[in-house]
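Lab notebook, bench 4. Still working through the backlog of constructs that have no structural model yet. Next entry is a single chain of 262 residues. Request: give me the structure tokens for it.
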Amino acid sequence: MILGQERRNYLVEIGKTEALLPVQEQIPRESHRRGDRIRALLLEVRRTPKDVQVILSRAHPQFVVKLFQLEVPEVAEKIVEIKGVVREAGDRTKISVASRDKAVDPVGACVGIKGSRVQAIVRELRGEKIDIIPWTNDPRVFIGEALNPASIEKVGIDEQKKAALVVVADSQLSLAIGKNGQNVRLAAKLTGWKIDIISASEYEKEKLERERDIKAALAEEAAAQDEQSVPAPVSEVSVSEEVPVTVAESDPPQPESEPVAE
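Model written out:
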């Protein structure tokens, strides 16, 4: 229960102890009055030489996890596991869930009939948007789901750099990025991947440019190979002029001398 406010920090009564809800642990734009009952996460217990100071939080991501444990029996019983949660308090939370029972839909369990369970949490968080995402170990699928509520067309990944390129329809680009980049920023934190988003028209334009560059490079390489494969020209001897040939002639044989008759 709220006891009062001191320097923008709320003093909260929990049993016989007073706790502090610091301004940095409050949900932005929310206010409380003396006597209001609130829920909060027990964040820290600070021991000092004089006393013990209990610090509460309503802005921490784990506060959302605790609310799901209170509102969703399957989460409390650990049938549905919360794999990750990221949050920008007062605006949006993204939470990934998986089921240990194939018969239980983890997203459906968290949403509840006609959204009853998740809406109770949204009310507690003063209208903060909550995206409940099915967890998977396939990074392409998980990244696509994490960018909810935007619809995704293609996801390409570089596993070594842990980076992803996501293609969305032109009409979905602003939704995928979110206000001030919030949606893609939270998706990147939730998945642990660096995410770049481009529109389908920009993707096709870049694809055509890459294809032209590849064709030009192949043509240059083929031309260079042709030049290397041409044989060197062979020098030819002209036969239009006769080459004089010198023949060595020997003196004709002399007849033998006949004996002279005496």
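Notes after review: Residues 237-243, 245-250, 255-262 have pLDDT under 50 and may be disordered. The helical segments are 61-71, 73-76, 106-111, 116-124, 139-146, 173-177, 182-191, 200-229. Flag for follow-up if needed.
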